[in-house]
Amino acid sequence: NDQVDDEKGNYDYLMGADVEFRNAAVTEELKYWARWLLDTLPCDGFRLDAAKHIPAWFFKEWADHVRGSAQRDLFIVAEYWSHDLGALQQYIELVDGKVML
Questions:
Q1: What's the pTM?
Q2: Is 74:67 a contact under the CB 8 Å cutoff?
Q3: Are 52 and 7 in contact (CB under 8 A)?
Q4: What distance in Å separates the CA atoms of residue 66 and residue 60, rounded to the nearest whole number?
Q5: How far is residue 36's CA from residue 11's CA, in Å, rounded to a whole number?
Q6: 75/44 Cα distance (integer angstroms)
Q7: 12, 44, 49, 93: which one is catalytic?
Q8: Residue 45, pLDDT score
Q9: How far is CA 54 from the centre of its chain?
Q10: pLDDT at residue 85, rounded to an integer
Q11: What are the pLDDT digits (tens) for 15-55?
Q12: Molecular function (GO) terms listed (predicted)?
């Protein structure tokens, strides 16, 4: 899978978790969950854990969705551990700057 980081052999799954982001039912459920959080909690943003192990296209789409659903400004930050500045810059480009690192 060329959509996730290959550090330490994590080519597809992080700690064995197989979340099928190509399945529309999965991505819609994750969007629903975000809307529920925004409607239920007084949160002002999201921290996305282990972002390099999840396809960047998903977080780009997800960020657009949650910002469109929110009744307020949101801050979205992704946890992406890397010493490689180029990898970090590439990720920001892949998500069109919609997620901070």
A1: 0.81
A2: yes
A3: yes
A4: 10
A5: 31
A6: 6
A7: 49
A8: 95
A9: 7
A10: 97
A11: 556 778 889 999 999 999 999 999 999 899 999 998 988 89
A12: alpha-amylase activity
> How buried is residue 63: exposed, middle or buried, by Cβ count under 10 Å (0-12/13-18/19+)?
buried
**Structure tokens given for 53:** 């192990």
Nearest to 14 by CA among 59, 80, 71, 67: 80
The first and second tokens of residue 77, run together, are 């930050």
**Residue 79 among the catalytic residues:** yes
For residue 44, which amino acid is it?
A: D
Catalytic residue flag (residue 73): no
Does residue 8 register a pLDDT over 90? no
Q: Which of 6, 28, 44, 79 is catalytic?
A: 79
Tokens, residue 32? 């629903």
Please give the angle made by the CA atoms of 77, 13 and 100, to the nearest 5 degrees: 10
Tokens at residue 47, please? 């921290």
